[in-house]
């Protein structure tokens, strides 16, 4: 059931404190509530941090515990952690949240209007599809009707005068 463990090499996102929002790697476990972290790729110096200030990610580096910053940096760069993080859904959600927080009143107004227009277009398209399906008999599970629903009706041949 559990996939993310507090272990050497586990990459974590700092949730609180001066380095909030930065990625760090767990270098060693100090005790039940604290770990030694190092963030060579995110400019977080080596130091201790409480576990309740960290969010564990799915990424993990392979290096011996209590490795030096040089070894952690090499493993970080080899695994391309920064690129993997940028491509993750989690990072995209964090970026979207920050972008939404930067919106002005006018930006929020424009967004509301755009959503309204989009929903109006979507509703019209849905109603057209529903109407066509209803005419075909597809909507309510009926067999196709004798009179073709949304098929174009054949034009009657004009009578030629003799």
From TrEMBL:
One GO CC term on file: cytosolic large ribosomal subunit
Biased composition (Basic residues): 153-162
Transmembrane stretches, start-end: none
Keywords from the UniProt entry: Ribonucleoprotein, Ribosomal protein
The protein, known as: Large ribosomal subunit protein eL14
Signal peptide start-end: none
Molecular function (Gene Ontology), one example: RNA binding
Region (Disordered): 136-162
GO biological process, one term: translation
InterPro entries cross-referenced by the UniProt entry: KOW, Rib_uL2_dom2, Ribosomal_eL14, Ribosomal_eL14_dom, Translation_prot_SH3-like_sf
Annotated KOW domain residues: 9-38
Source species taxonomy: Eukaryota, Metazoa, Ecdysozoa, Arthropoda, Hexapoda
Record-annotated Large ribosomal subunit protein eL14 domain positions: 45-119
Family of the protein in this entry: Belongs to the eukaryotic ribosomal protein eL14 family.
